[in-house]
Amino acid sequence: MLNGRIRLVAAVWLGVVLGWGCGGSDAQPPVQGPHATLPRAPSLVIAVPGDGQVTVTWDVPGDGGSALLDYAVHVYSDEGEVRVVTVPVSEPRAVVTELANGTAYAFSVVARNARGRSVASERSDRVVPHVTPGAVQNLVAVESDQTVTLSWDAADDKGMPLDSYFVTPFFEAREGETVRVPATELGKTFHSMTNGMAVRFVVVAYNGHARGPEASIEATPFTTPGVPVLTAEPNAGGGRVFLTWRVDDTGGNPITSYRVTVYLEGEVIRTVETFETRASVESLVNATTYQFTVEAANAAGWGQASERIAAMPTRYPSKPRNATCQGGHGWISFGWEPPEFDYGHPVTGYRLSTVIDGDSADWYTTDPGYHLTTIPNDGRAFSFFIAAGSAAGFGEAARLQCSTWPDRP
Fold it and tell me: 338 lies in which domain range?
């Protein structure tokens, strides 16, 4: 009896040692080394924020001699731990969703194997899930003298309040200083700019975490044109004055028109607009002094008028009347009457001209006649021209043909 009991106890003990059982399972426990330990803590935890979510990555830790089973990602805010997300062991990465935009979060990761859980990793840097705002709308630039004023409609905040706008001017290839504009302001004025130099402005919205797409516009500050330099020249044909001018400073914008103003005794009697840099002012009274100015216009308006200059339309005297000549031995005498018209300028003298042996010869007198003795006394006939002169110059000439009468042998 005793021996039977001893055999039963021995059999039970041996079954326990060898793993025998009655109807027992064939399942095997997780494979582990003879000295398996807990996993090491994950390292290099990095969090990248997105819209309502954060992507967390880490380096795979040592498994302690037992295959890793999964990871637990712990989510923390200023209020403490808010969530734990279990992640399969297949990839050391987790996308944590349903987070509040604008709230700061940090993350730590715990690894697990058959022996248990590792200690938690160091927490990641705090990150803030956020949206990317939209672009500003209806960006407008208003140019003026050394100034550009920008205005725009607010960008779509995508549900997250905007903090500000950044405005950057670009001068050809050079980037200017970026200006930060509060979100409550929808515009910015830039001063002390160079008239005529094109500037590209780039505006982006910012919500404190991300900048939206760029909106850009080009503008060129400008002002009214500078003062023209005017010259006037009377036309000897009478009744008109020719004006020419130049403008050295366009104000940074193309000139679109010029305006000529005509004055008589200080009063404006006429204005003429033209696209040219010259004008012929006609239907004026000869021998009357007029004054003239000119001003230039561009998109900014009319510039300052030129200095007022005076000019008198003139006309040459008509030709002398009833001109006659008579030749003698070595001389020719001429006579005439003053011209019918002096056109407001008194006749001041006369010019007698001819050509002798291919050379021009001129004689002048203030009298209505001339006795010529310096002429070849060979009986040849010469063509003579008699013209009256005034402040406007010499006018049309009367033509005569005369000769000397040498003595016969």
Answer: 321-403
Residue 279 lies in a domain: yes
> pTM for the complete prediction?
0.63
Is 243 in the same domain as 271?
A: yes
The answer as to whether 126 is a domain residue is: no
299 Rama class: left (phi>0) / alpha (psi -120 to 50) / beta: alpha
Q: Are residues 344 and 387 in the same domain?
A: yes
Tens digits of residue pLDDT in 23-62: 334 444 454 555 789 999 999 999 999 999 999 999 999 9
26 Cβ neighbours under 8 A, 6+ residues apart? none
CATH number at residue 274: 2.60.40.10
Contact (Cβ atoms closer than 8 angstroms) between residue 31 and residue 115: no
Please count the structural domains in the chain: 4
152 vs 136: CA distance, rounded Å? 6
Strand partners, 217: 201
3-state secondary structure of 279: strand
Over residues 280-322, the pLDDT tens digits come to: 999 999 889 999 999 999 999 999 999 999 998 888 899 999 9
Range with lowest mean pLDDT among 117-121, 188-192, 209-213, 375-379:
375-379
In this structure, the answer to whether residues 47 and 112 fall within a common structural domain is: yes
335-377: per-residue pLDDT in tens?
Answer: 999 999 888 889 999 999 999 888 899 999 999 999 999 888 8
53 assigned to some structural domain: yes
- Beta bridge mates, 384: 400
Closest to 152 (Cα-Cα) out of 195, 212, 102, 197:
212
Residues in Cβ contact with 131 at an 8 Å cutoff, skipping those fewer than 6 apart: 51, 101, 157, 158, 159, 160, 207, 210
DSSP helix/strand/coil, 14: helix
Examine residue 359 and state whether it is found in any structural domain, yes or no.
yes
Is the same domain home to 356 and 386? yes
Domain shared by 207 and 152, yes or no: yes
